[in-house]
Structure formats: C-alpha cells, structure tokens
Amino acid sequence: MSLAKIKHIVLVLSGKGGVGKSSITTQLALSLSLAGHSVGVLDVDLTGPSIPRMFGIESEKVTQAPGGWLPITVHPSSPPSDSHPSGVGSLRVMSLGFLLPNRGDAVVWRGPKKTAMVRQFLSDVFWDDLDYLLIDTPPGTSDEHISLAETLLRQARPEQVSGAVVVTTPQAVATADVRKELNFCVKTGIKVLGVVENMAGYVCPNCSECTNIFSSGGGEVMAGEFGVKFLGRVPIDPQFLVLIETGKRPRYPKGTKVNGEEFQGVETEREGEEEKAGNKEGLLVNKYGDCSLAPIFKGITSDVVAAVEGGR
Ligand SMILES: Nc1ncnc2c1ncn2[C@@H]1O[C@H](COP(=O)(O)OP(=O)(O)OP(=O)(O)O)[C@@H](O)[C@H]1O
Ligand code: SF4
C-alpha cells in the first residue's frame, strides 16, 4: 500500500476558493524540507491543480513503475550544511495536473469519477519513505472531501493521519465558509492542527510597512471559537505573488529589508547558471530564502510540526 511508509499525513483545507491554500501548501512543504524532513505533496484539487506551476515543474511528466506512479522530484535530499544544519529533505510532488493532456485544463468529471480518482491517488502513488505527506484539497466540503476523508481513514493507520491545517482570509465571508470546513473536520473526526489567516494586511513593496486593508483577526477569533490553535497571519506580499505564480525570484527594490538584512538586488545571471546546471535545490533555497514571508512560514511550520509531534 502506497501510504504505508509515510509518517505523517497533513491535509490543507479551506472552505472557500482562492484564499491561498495551494500557496500555503507549497510554503509548508518547502519549510519542512529545509528543516530536514522528507516531504511529499499530493495535489487533489481536481478542479484547478496549481501546485505543479507553483513549484515550476509544470512541464514534467509522471511515469508508471511497478509500485505505482512515480512523483516528480522538486529536489533530492542533501546532507547537513552551515545554512541547513539538519540537511535538506527530499521534496516530491504528485498532481492530477501532470496527467491532463492540456495543462491548465480544469477537470469537469462528475462525483463518482472524481471519487475513483481520489482513491487511486491515495493508493497508486509510489511515495516510498516520507516524513510528511501534505494533501492540497479542493475548496469546500464537496464529494472529493468526503471521499478523501473516508479513503484516508480507511487506507491509512489512524496514527498516520495527523490532522488538517485550515486556511482562511480575514474577511467575514471567508471565515463563514471556513467554519463549515471546521465543522466537517469535527464530523469526520479529523483533528485540526490549526488555522492560518492568509492575506492579512498588505506589505508595501517600498517600505515593507504592513497595512490592514480589509478587516483582520477573523481567523484568530474563529480558531478561539473552535478551541483550535491559531498558527499565524500571512500578509499579502506582491513579490510573493510573482514568486509563486512564475517560479521566479522576488524583486525587491535595493535597500529593502528582507529577513532583517538589506536586499542586494537580483542576480539574474547566477539564477540562469544554476538553472542550466540543474541546481534546482540551490535555486529554490535562494528563491524562497529571499522572500519576506519566509520567516513567517518557518514559524507556522514549527507550530505545525509541534502539533503533529505533540499529537502522537
Ligand atoms: N500572502 C499572499 N501574498 C500575495 N499573494 C498571495 C498570497 N497568498 C496567495 N496569493 C496569491 O493568490 C492567488 C490564489 O492563491 P492560491 O492558488 O494559493 O489559492 P487557493 O486557495 O489554493 O485557490 P483554489 O481555490 O484555486 O485552490 C495566487 O495567485 C497566489 O499567488
Ligand atoms: S509607507 Fe509605504 S505604503 Fe505608505 S506611502 Fe510610504 S511607501 Fe507607500
């Protein structure tokens, strides 16, 4: 069974579309891998698989092996170094996006076909050993969710299913939808590891000041109501959008403070060289390390790890 060698399975859920669930999944995956964990990402968002684009691996093709579909390797593991004392864990991705003839196509299958695909996703991908499998789910409490929850609970050992990270935005309308998602977790017996409030305020690209454009704090209030952990706020950062949507390094004006240090501009030639040399890992580490949101994702990831480990 393909899930047998996975230590922790974490679902990333949101009741509403477009709140940044896939973006948060990619960042959690990256932070876990940079902390030395081997990570898999399963993109079950059948209506709009965006994970391959976000990792810059959209044109890759998955192949079949006797043990199942082989996920695409974003980067292999690497030994401890000064910058990553625990080493870097391997990062692999499986998405329906790899199987669609035209990338970007949305899947319009009806319930039973979707349910069958989710089952196959869970049972037929050859993950081998993984510390974490993150599952990016479609928004809502639809057929896919129910089928995924049922299949997970049936195919995985109870101690493997660590729980769910629920993503919301601060606006009341989003939190009302996400409330449904939290109720869904209660009904299906999936533990909520915590709530992330994404797009909470706007980071000015000139001065790095964060301004609350919409209301703020909805996610924290909701977490309190349900008695679950509030994992933190992620502001809107226009550079992050560029990074996540194009797979390119962010471009801050020279002098902007990034991770507490002055950003020195973008070294595009080096980026090209690394790409040519196939140094995907180096490229990713640089790319994401330069993002102003990186420390926030690191903090959220530590809390998720603590919640997972604490619940064993
Ligand atoms: N904190 C952020 N700052 C800037 N842009 C963001 C942030 N979070 C997400 N985005 C952008 O918002 C858009 C929607 O994000 P994403 O695709 O992750 O949402 P989703 O909830 O997974 O959507 P879907 O419902 O399609 O699955 C993307 O273009 C993403 O790059
Ligand atoms: S503080 Fe930032 S967002 Fe506000 S005016 Fe100055 S540069 Fe613009």
First-residue to last-residue Cα separation: 22 Å
Q: In CATH terms, what is the architecture? A: 3-Layer(aba) Sandwich
- Structural shape: globular
Calculate the mean pLDDT score and round it.
Answer: 78
What is the SS-derived class?
Answer: alpha/beta
* Rg value: 19 Å
Strand fraction equals 15-25%
| Distinct helical segment count | 10
CATH level-4 homologous superfamily: P-loop containing nucleotide triphosphate hydrolases
What percent of the residues sit in helical stretches (DSSP H or I)?
Answer: 25-40%
| Unreliable segments of 5+ consecutive residues | 249-254, 263-288
What is the fold-level CATH name, i.e. the topology?
A: Rossmann fold
Number of strands: 13
CATH class type: Alpha Beta
Sketch the topology as an H/E string, one letter per element.
EHEHEEEEHEHEHEEHEHEEHHH
Q: List the domain count as a whole number.
A: 1
Q: What kind of sheet is the major sheet?
A: 9 strands, mixed
